[in-house]
Design goal:
Helix content of chain B: 25-40%
CATH topology of the largest domain in chain A: Rna Polymerase Sigma Factor, Chain: A
CATH class of the largest domain in chain A: Mainly Alpha
Order of helices and strands of chain A: HHHHHHHHHHH
Number of domains of chain B: 2
Helix content of chain A: over 70%
Distance between the termini of chain B: 76 Å
Number of helices of chain B: 9
Oligomer: heterodimer
Number of domains of chain A: 3
Shape of chain B: elongated
Order of helices and strands of chain B: HHHHHHEEHHEEEEEEEHE
Structural class of chain A: mainly alpha
Number of helices of chain A: 11
Mean pLDDT of chain B: 78
Shape of chain A: flat
Largest sheet of chain B: 5 strands, antiparallel
Strand content of chain A: under 5%
Number of strands of chain A: 0
CATH architecture of the largest domain in chain A: Orthogonal Bundle
Radius of gyration of chain B: 24 Å
CATH class of the largest domain in chain B: Mainly Beta
CATH architecture of the largest domain in chain B: Sandwich
Distance between the termini of chain A: 47 Å
Low-confidence stretches of chain B: 137-152
Mean pLDDT of chain A: 83
C-alpha cells in the first residue's frame, strides 16, 4: 500500500473544502470539472509546490485553477479534442517559430536547414501537447513554450547520443569548480577579495549583485531599474554568481 | 562599488545571503526530478507575472542554483516567451503552410456495450504500438528519470469521451514512475461527468478494471474524480530487460444506470 503523507491528506481536505465553497457559490459544475484536475496536480506535486508551507494558499490555488479552467478549457478542448485546422494552423506556426528562434539563439545558421529542424522539433512538441495534461494553474503560452523548449533540447540530446566519441579520444577535463561551501565574507580579508572579484565582473553582472545583495532589491525590481527583462536579470544573476565563485576560488578564498 | 557598503554592519545580512548563494551555485547536481520538471512551467509563468520567485519559491530557486541543466531549461523557456512578447523573433524563413498530418492521430474512441437492461460497459484500449509511441521510442522506463531528463514526467495512457443516457464521461488514464514502489508505475484514472440533460442524474459507483499484461486490478470508484490504481510493476507489462512493452492496455468501466 502506498504511504500516505499526512500533509498531502491535509491538502486534499483543504481542496475539498475549497470545492465545497465553490459549490455553495453556485459553481457546482465548475467544482466537478476541476476536481480531477486538482487531484492530478496534487499527484504531480504542483499543489505542494505552489502552496509551499502555507496551507492557507490552497484556497488561492483552487480559485486560480477554477478561473483558468473557465477561461482556457474551450481552447484546450479545441486543441486536444476537436483538433481543428483553424486552431492548429496559427498555433503550429507559432511553435515552429519559437523552435526556430530557439535554434538561432543556440547559434544555428539562419535559413531553410535550421527551419527544417525547427519544424521537426515543433511536430514533436505538438504531438506531446496533444496528449499532455494541461494543469490549469498557469497560462497556456508559458506551458507551450516549455514543451517546445523541451522538444528542442531533446533534439540536441538525441543528436549527442548518436555521435559517440571513441573512448581513446575522451580526455578528462577538470572543469569542476573548487568548493566554496564554507566561504565566509565575514572577515576583512575575504571582503577585500570579494571586492576585487566584483571589480572583475562585467558592468551588468556587477550591477545585479549591487542591486540585489547590497541594495536588497528583489530581482524583478532590479530588472526594472536596469531596464532589462526578468529573464535577462535571472541570467545575469546566475552568471555573476558563477563568475564570482570562479574568481574567488582562484583567489585562494577557500576553506 | 563602494567598499564601505560591504563593511557596513547593516549589510551583514546581504553578505550572508551572497555567501549562501555562492555556496549553492552549481553543486554538481545533474538530475532533474519529476517534481522539478513539473515546477518549470509554473516558475516560468510566475516569473512572467512579476512574482519574485527567489522569495516566493526559495526551494526551487535553490535548485536553479545547484542544477545547471535545470537552470538552462528555465532560462531558455523564459527567453523564448520574452522574445515573443517583445516582438524580437526572427521570421520563419518558409511561408509554406504547415503539414498537420500528426493531428490525424485521433484520441482513442471508446467502445460502448450494453450488458443488460441497466448495465453498460465502456471499453478503452491502447495498443502496444501506441504505448511504445507514448514512451517515446521505448527506452527502459527504469532509466527514464535520468536518460530523458526533459520529457514530460507523466504519460497519458488513455484519453476518451463516451456518452451514456444523457451523461458524458471524460476519461483519462495517466501514469508516472511510482514514488512508493521500486521498478513500478503509478497509474491514476480521472473521470469527469457532464450531465447533458436535466433528466440525467448522478450515477452509481463505477467498476474500473485495468488490464495490462500480467497486471489486472478492479476498483470501485465514485462516479467521478481521480482514483489511483495499485502500482504496476514493470515486470507485468515489460519484458525481462524492461526494454519492450509486451502487451496492449485495456480499461473497462462498468456502469449501472
Amino acid at each position: 500500500m502506498p504511504i500516505m503523507n499526512p500533509q498531502r491528506e491535509e491538502i486534499k481536505f483543504e481542496i475539498e473544502k475549497a470545492l465545497q465553497f465553490l459549490e455553495e457559490k453556485d459553481e457546482a459544475q465548475s467544482a466537478a470539472k476541476i476536481r480531477p484536475v486538482l487531484h492530478s496536480n496534487l499527484d504531480r506535486g504542483r499543489v505542494e509546490n505552489f502552496i509551499g508551507n502555507n496551507i492557507r494558499r490552497v484556497d488561492e490555488y483552487v480559485q486560480r485553477v477554477a478561473d483558468q479552467y473557465a477561461r482556457l478549457n474551450p481552447y484546450i478542448n479545441a486543441i486536444q479534442n476537436a483538433r481543428s485546422d483553424d486552431v492548429w494552423q496559427p498555433l503550429f506556426r507559432n511553435m515552429r517559430l519559437w523552435a526556430y528562434n530557439f535554434l538561432l539563439r543556440k547559434n544555428f545558421v539562419p535559413g531553410l536547414s535550421t527551419a527544417s529542424i525547427a519544424e521537426e522539433c515543433a511536430i514533436a512538441a505538438a504531438v506531446n501537447l496533444l496528449d499532455a495534461n494541461f494543469p490549469y494553474d498557469i497560462d497556456f503560452e508559458p506551458w507551450a513554450h516549455v514543451i517546445v523548449t523541451n522538444a528542442c533540447l531533446r533534439f540536441f540530446r538525441n543528436g549527442t547520443k548518436k555521435s559517440v566519441i571513441p573512448p581513446q579520444n575522451i580526455v578528462e577535463l577538470d572543469e569542476k569548480l573548487p568548493s566554496t561551501n564554507d566561504i565566509s565574507l565575514d572577515n576583512q580579508e575575504n571582503r577585500a577579495d570579494l571586492l576585487i572579484a566584483l571589480s572583475l565582473l562585467s558592468d551588468a553582472r556587477r550591477q545585479v549583485i549591487q542591486l540585489h545583495y547590497l541594495d536588497e532589491l528583489p530581482l524583478p525590481d532590479a530588472a526594472k531599474v536596469m531596464g532589462k527583462s526578468v529573464g535577462a536579470i535571472h541570467s545575469l544573476h546566475f552568471n555573476a554568481l558563477q563568475d564570482l565563485r570562479k574568481i574567488l576560488s582562484g583567489n585562494g578564498n577557500k576553506p | 562599488m563602494d567598499t564601505n557598503q560591504l563593511d557596513h554592519g547593516k549589510n551583514e545580512k546581504s553578505r550572508k545571503k551572497l555567501a549562501a548563494d555562492l555556496a549553492g551555485i552549481d553543486s554538481d547536481v545533474l538530475f532533474i526530478s519529476m517534481k522539478e520538471h513539473e515546477m518549470l512551467s509554473l516558475m516560468v509563468d510566475e516569473t512572467l507575472k512579476g512574482v519574485d520567485i527567489k522569495t516566493r519559491y526559495p526551494d526551487f530557486y535553490q535548485k536553479l542554483f545547484s542544477n545547471a541543466e535545470l537552470r538552462q531549461v528555465f532560462l531558455d523557456a523564459l527567453d523564448s516567451v520574452e522574445a515573443e512578447k517583445q516582438s524580437e523573433l526572427s521570421a520563419f524563413p518558409s511561408e509554406e503552410k504547415p503539414n498537420l498530418v500528426f493531428l490525424n492521430k485521433k484520441p482513442n474512441q471508446p467502445g460502448i456495450q450494453q450488458l443488460d437492461k441497466d448495465r453498460w460497459q465502456i471499453i478503452l484500449q491502447t495498443t502496444i504500438q501506441q504505448l511504445q509511441d507514448i514512451f517515446s521510442g521505448g527506452p527502459a522506463l527504469a532509466y527514464r528519470s535520468d536518460a530523458n531528463l526533459f520529457d514530460d514526467s507523466w504519460f497519458t495512457l488513455l484519453r476518451g469521451e463516451a456518452e451514456l443516457e444523457g451523461t458524458s464521461y471524460a476519461i483519462l488514464l495517466e501514469c508516472g514512475i511510482s514514488k512508493e514502489t521500486e521498478q513500478a508505475l503509478s497509474a491514476s484514472l480521472n473521470i469527469a461527468m457532464t450531465l447533458e440533460t436535466a433528466s440525467a442524474s448522478a450515477q452509481a459507483p463505477i467498476h474500473a478494471t485495468l488490464q495490462w499484461g500480467k497486471y489486472s486490478e478492479t476498483l470501485t470508484i465514485a462516479a467521478e474524480g481521480r482514483t489511483r490504481f495499485p502500482d504496476i510493476p514493470f515486470s507485468a507489462s515489460f519484458d525481462q530487460q524492461d526494454q519492450k512493452i509486451i502487451s496492449g492496455l485495456d480499461l473497462i468501466l462498468e456502469i449501472r444506470l
